[in-house]
Amino acid sequence: MGTYPNACVAADHHLASEAGAEILRQGGNAVDAAVATSFALSVVRPYSCGLGGGGFMVIHLKQHPRLGEVTTAINYRETGPGAVKPDSFEQDPDPDAATHGGKAVCVPGTVAGLLYALEKYGTMNRAAVLAPAIRLAEAGFHADQHYIDSTHLDDLVIPWFRKDPVRPRRFAFMWTRYLKGGEVAAGDRIHVPEQAEALRLIARHGRDGFYKGPVARSMVDAVQRDGGFLTLDDLAGYAVREVEPLRASFRGSTILTMPPPSSGGIVLAQVFGMLEAREADLRAYQREGGPHGANAIHLVTEASKHAFADRARWMGDPAFVDVPLGRLLDPAYLRAKAAMIDPARTLPHEAYGAASWSKDDAGTSHFCVVDAHGGAVSCTETVNLIFGSMLVAEPFGFVLNDEMDDFLTRRGKANAFGLSHADRNRPQPGKRPLSSMTPTMVLDAGEAGRFGEVRMLAGGAGGPRIISGTLQAILNVQVWGMNAGEALAAPRFHHQWEPDRLDLEPALSGSPVKAALERVGHAVGARKAIGNVQIVVRHGERWQAASDPRKGGRPDGY
Ligand code: GLY
User: pTM for this one?
Assistant: First the structure.
């Protein structure tokens, strides 16, 4: 954790925080710094997010020089390519078609989204905000422990490559440059100066430097050679969507978060609504048991199960399907759900909702920025799973997403996170897959319908565990009174309704709390890390910024 009097950035890599803070020191606003942080992350967290991915950005500026107060959200989630069909994956003999290789790649939105945000809400020019990322790409960086752990996770990266001798040839750039033939070790220099050339083209030509010309052709070639859908028309047609943030409230604060196709914002708002309806219980647990007592964990878990069940059934891209936001966020509905929560037991599985789904994900990155003028950005970006599709746009060296797997690609089959979805989340051209990314702000209640001051920013990585991590970081500060560093170091728990399992981090699963949770009916599992969260918290006249110790980032500011 760092404490700063003026402005700061909390990203999940110290070089990205430093890139954003450099822009803040030059007088840039939160959007300028966010854009610089994101482009830097593309270089130093290539397995989490980057040019070939997508994301969501929630912006709140107190005093933009031209626009005054700005409160908005930018949706630059990847879209289904023009040739994809709802059933494109049903008969595919390759069980990994939606996660590895060309067919997994959706139309990237990050560059369009960042440039849109910069042009409309930033104050600096492209060359200035891209300069730190270009320097990092030219210099390279050293793989940290999180990089190494991510490449050995489950069956996704190096273990997956070793299973089939064709794979190192099929994904040769990934295998040789990012994974060093499967021998990458902590401290190794990862040097992909080719990405600097793509970044320079973006600095020079803007959106056209990426969505047209040699960079566009490199993406299409990589994807089509590997049997995927992406075309030059898909790239040229990519459209950013600007939307109103989803608004909710909790204990007198205003919450601004991401609407669909994020599921995270709705789930967060639902859980806050249910917890407000159980305020008496929450206060009792504040006096007795605390945040890691079985009672508090049970209450938050049960509320989360109700919300995750609604996620599975109702959520998708609102440009294609009707997401009944009004009903899902209706206070009466949330009070009724809250009333169902029994402190003494869990409910039968079906009592929570009507559809289904788990797996750890480092393939996402969240950062928070506050500027010296009270402006803020909360931004989450992803290439989906670690190193996305494993395809790299050559010769430019950036990773292409595998966001296709966030759609329901095979009926009756869960995706890589163990998440099942309803038909409303089938792939379609132009459609955005349902996401768990939850970039969030907590503001003081403002007067006369106006927004108050920023109190806290939060968001994370980790697939569905993004939502639990973000929720618990906010509760740790707002309810349990922790500082920013304590709020992230605290152990976490996660339940996503399906599978019916309450995962505890080690500090909880080795404690008497586990037995108490089993007694009220939870099937308890263990997980080393639940999400990777970054937060900024207002503390008097200063900002506390913290990067999750689980990913090893470090904030910066002044
Ligand atoms: N790709 C992870 C998410 O958007 O939920």
Answer: 0.96
